[in-house]
Amino acid sequence: MESVIQTAFPFIVISVAILLAFQGVLMIVAYTVLAERKVLGWIQGRIGPNRVGPWGVLQPFADLLKFIFKEDLIPDKSTKFVYILAPLVALTCALLPMVVYPFGPAITTVDWSFLPFGVGDGITVLPLTIARIDVGVLFVLAITSVGVYGIALAGWSSNNKYSLMGGLRSSAQLISYELAMGASVIGAVMLAGTLDLNGIIHAQINSPFRWFIIPQFVGFIVFLIAAFAETNRIPFDLPEAETELVAGFHTEYSALKFALFFMAEYVNMFTVSVLGTTLFLGGWYVPGLSYIFEPGSIPYALVSHIAFIGKICGFLFLYIWIRGTLPRFRFDQLMSFGWKFLLPVALGNVFLTIVIVYFLNR
Amino acid sequence: MVSTALFFLFAGFAIACAVSMVYHKNPIYSAISLVGVFIALSCIYLTLAAPFIAIVQILIYAGAIMVLVVFVIMLLNLDDDKPLNRLRFLYALGGGLGIVLLTQTLFIYYAVLRAPNIPVDEAATAGSTMSIGRAMYTEYLLPVEIVGVMLLMAIIGAVMLARGVKLEPEVTVVSVGTGNLGDTEKVESDTVRSENSKDDDARLAEH
Questions:
Q1: Which residues contact residue B107 at a Cβ distance below 8 angstroms, ignoring those fewer than 6 apart?
Q2: Which end of chain A is more exposed for a tag (fewer CB within 10 A), N or C?
Q3: How far apart are CA A134 and CA A147, in angstroms?
């Protein structure tokens, strides 16, 4: 009995961690939608949603209920299997990177031997990351690049001109800006000397002046622009430009299938915010916190985790702010901007960083 | 035990996807099946403690190359072709190649059976990013450089071909629609003077 529990314990811990992270991310995403409507309301001199619950705080749940109870239409001439597969691919690829998010510093000072059945024996480190693989940055980039299929296949399988145009535009846009995004990340990775997300944070620790936003400012700006394009947000929301394409690739989608695309878009925003925070803003590191709490203790981890979420929320606010401020690009402007300006700047930044790192390490 | 079960799960998935890729007439289904093969292979790499190879497999094959293939299929809108009688000899050729491949597989199986069983050192991290990078840029530097130059040549060649020397305007017929259901629409695009392949793509996507 005891040995069974000892064998099963790591699986139980990981399952609980996945459940917690899943719920947390989805709650933040749901409230990003509400925050977006509220902030856009303020920017445009309106009130925003305020009917469901006090100050509109129950609005996300009302929206979800509405999505569930709407009629789920499948167009007669669509390719049914692909049509149903596409939103699933989009949301799965959006949620998968969650397993490598560095939610906080490892808890190292707690003695877990008080747990029953001896399950806590020998455990000294409790990392606040679900899977510790040493190629975290590449994992996030790879999985989000697979997410293109969701959009492209949705556009193709709907058998609708607007959908197809939206899907094609989106594939072209995502392929183009993935290059700039990957190149902008390389600078920070080279300075840290590792592809592990926690390792990159540890390279920026001890002082806010070691955050990579300072030596990699060009990389940060390129990353930010590419991140807006990767998540199909204004000013790069060409795939669903409603004045030209009705609703782009999700024109034919209704009810819960549309909700899956909608959620995937906001989870992707969260993902690139995590990547930006980790690579350029020091991740969960709070300046001066190690003087107040002992590093590795529970309060230190808790405050760091809240700081991490706070930095991400800053990014998300920037998204909403830009949406309320800028108009949309034209498609040829988007393409020539990505290929003729953003990519050369990112590659130049990579080259400069290589030279500097080489001479610093001699 | 768990790793064996995972291996058979992913290997079975890969084989099923490969069969489905060959079997399907519709190119989009074949492309999706090929993506499934790549993902299953990268899962097998992960269970073999080679995360870098696994992630690069997804990033390059599934995330870049196959996206381009799907993009082209969607753009070109290939109709179902009638079987070409004059290509019958390809069946014999394919059968011969299949027998050769099967022989190779059996030979590899035989060679693995005969190979001495060396216990794997758990501490060795041959699949980690650091060791792959070190091996690539010290021991195998020359092959890496040669491959890099070859890829650069291919890129420059592709750009030269795409820019072309089309001086006279030509009418291209682009069919836009979904390939499988016959509701296709022929759009005669304007005279497309190909100055730049990217602009061309953009213009095609706008139609």
A1: none
A2: C
A3: 22
Q: Answer whether A77 sits within 8 Å of B181, measured CB to CB.
A: yes
Among partner residues B28, B55, B183, which is closest to A159 by beta-carbon distance? Answer: B183
Query: What residues of chain B lie within 8 A of the CB of A138, using their CB?
Result: 52, 55-56, 59
* A58-67 mean pLDDT: 88
Tell whether A92 lies on the interface with B, counting CB pairs under 8 A. no
CB < 8 Å to A165, chain B: 176, 205-206
Give the residue among A248, A185, A148 at the shortest CA–CA distance from B65: A148
Give me A47's structure tokens.
Answer: 């009130």
Closest chain A residue to the Cα of B207, Cα to Cα: A165
The alpha carbon torsion through B2, B4, B7, B8 (nearest 10 deg) reads -110
Asked whether the predicted pLDDT for residue B11 surpasses 80, the reply is yes
Percent of chain A with pLDDT over 70: 97
Q: Do residues A25 and A2 touch, judged by C-beta distance below 8 A?
A: no
Average pLDDT over residues A184-197: 87
Of A142, A161, A171, the CB nearest to B58: A142
Tokens of B141: 């530097």
pLDDT of residue B147: 93
> Is A132 an 8 Å CB contact of chain B?
no
Q: Where are the alpha helices (DSSP H) in chain A?
A: 2-43, 59-69, 80-95, 136-146, 148-157, 161-192, 197-203, 217-230, 242-245, 255-280, 289-292, 298-325, 331-336, 343-360
Q: pLDDT by residue (tens digit) across B120-157?
A: 665 556 667 788 888 888 888 999 999 999 999 998 99
Q: How many Cα atoms within 13 Å fall on the side-chain side of residue A340?
A: 10
- Residue B35 CB neighbours (<10 A): 24
How far apart CA A321 and CA A83 sit, in angstroms, is: 33
Cα A87 from Cα A348, distance rounded (Å): 37
Secondary structure (3-state) at A74: coil
Assigned token pair, B7:
């291996």
Q: pLDDT tens, A278-311?
A: 988 888 888 877 788 878 788 888 888 899 999 9
Q: Does B37 touch chain A (CB under 8 A)?
A: no
d(C-alpha A340, C-alpha A317), whole Å: 29
**Percent with pLDDT over 70 in chain B:** 69
Residue contact B202–A332, C-beta within 8 A: yes
ipTM: 0.81
Distance CA A196, CA A278 (A): 10
Say which amino acid occupies B128: S
H helix runs in chain B, sequence order: 2-23, 27-47, 51-56, 66-76, 89-114, 129-134, 141-163, 197-206
